[in-house]
Design goal:
It is built from five helices and 13 strands. The chain has 247 residues and is an alpha/beta fold.
Length: 247
Amino acid sequence: MAKQLSLFLLATLWMVGASAQIPQGSAQLLLTVTDDWGATTGKLYTYTRREGVWIPVFEPVSVNLGRTGLAWGIGLHPNSVVSQSDPQKREGDGKAPAGIFSLSDAFGYPDTLKTGLNYQPMRASHYCIDVPASPLYNQTVDADIVGDKAVEGSSEGMRRDIHYGDQQYKKGIFVAHNPANVPKAGSCIFVHLWKAPGSPTAGCTAMAEPQMDALLAWLNAEHQPVYVALPTAQYHVLKAQWKLPSL
């Protein structure tokens, strides 16, 4: 029943996306554009929408993307824009998802964080499940609640400072990719801190901490923020249809 419900939700998202694209109620936009599908870096632009017009907020910043570039993900965009010749996001492919996605809660290591998003502080027991066969696939869970067995095999310990010795998840934002949690379609997509300039990710969007701090302070859950990522060619093709701003 759960799998049937997930497939139904996915189909519904695609049908809604065919006419909706960026929701009318969304007033904040993060837009990443890359040179091509294989690029591992790009530029991130920020916009606020006033009376139907996208207005730039911050100067564009450099971001790192998946180690093998971009691929179409599952989000708010219509399935009709996805060409069979384009790469499509799969678990473990090292690609960041392209398309339109809602931004969800912020997360991180501190107990509190300056942001207009809802904030989830992470503990050593928090994991995002990237095991496709798991009923918790693409969900962030607390092992103290679901049990240690439920997180076995997951490589996404959310306290990377404790598990892997780095600060990449010190501050981040959940990206609503694959919201129906379709197995093998890609999991655990975030905007987070980068390891170093030019250092690719496993499939997320990463940036320097000062830029992350500015984003977190600016983003507000009440404005229904969205994230869009596209290669340059696809951006120009879809700009008018999706009512995207000029760069």
